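Practice problem: predict the structure.
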Amino acid sequence: MTRDWDARTYDRVAGPMTRWGNTVLDRLPLTGRERVLDAGCGSGRVTERLAERLPDGRIVALDGSPSMIETARARLARFGDRVEYVVADLGRPLPIDPVDAILSTATFHWVPDHDALFRNLGAVLRPAGRLVAQCGGAGNIGSIQEVLGRIGDGWLGPVHFATPEDTARRLDAAGFVDVTCWLTEEPTRFQPGEQFETYLRTVVLGAHLERLPSSEHEAFVRAVAEALPEPVIDYVRLNILAERADH
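Answer:
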């Protein structure tokens, strides 16, 4: 199951994801005429740059959050009907026509079943099409996970931070070839206080807050922020390059 997000606030604070996403996009070779799926487009900040690289192509902007799709639609309006918008769960078969390539940034770790994820992506990717992605990997937000393990009921959230080895195995089983997966550490520092708490509330702790009465939200976010030794998130990114088998 997917959840809705506070897309406007996310768009305002998503600098780290945008920075990483632009680097990932640079790994995707394009002629400018392809049909590309942005699997987890969010508020459309990286999608916008993808659209600029596809002057004669088309984009499927897909996200599980309706508010993210609406924010992306507004951001990408200048590209007209070259962008198709879809609200869908990557953990289920995707309701789209085949694409030539798939880009995904900061999304796959929100999908619990990665075997199903890669099967679903492979089913809509044309033979020899490229998958270029990045998401949270093994060890991601480890210091926050440690805090969450001892606050409240100890729930760590609906996240799946996979290893490169497990990811490569799953991609191979889903019919991908030329698979390369690796981790990169991206520790990210924030201004203490409101800026850090807003980021935690919007990007990291949303699913936790959904389980609490609204009257407890601020105290929970503050408790997590104050339990960390400094306003730094120890991000670890799982990078993925793969190609759909051509038969």
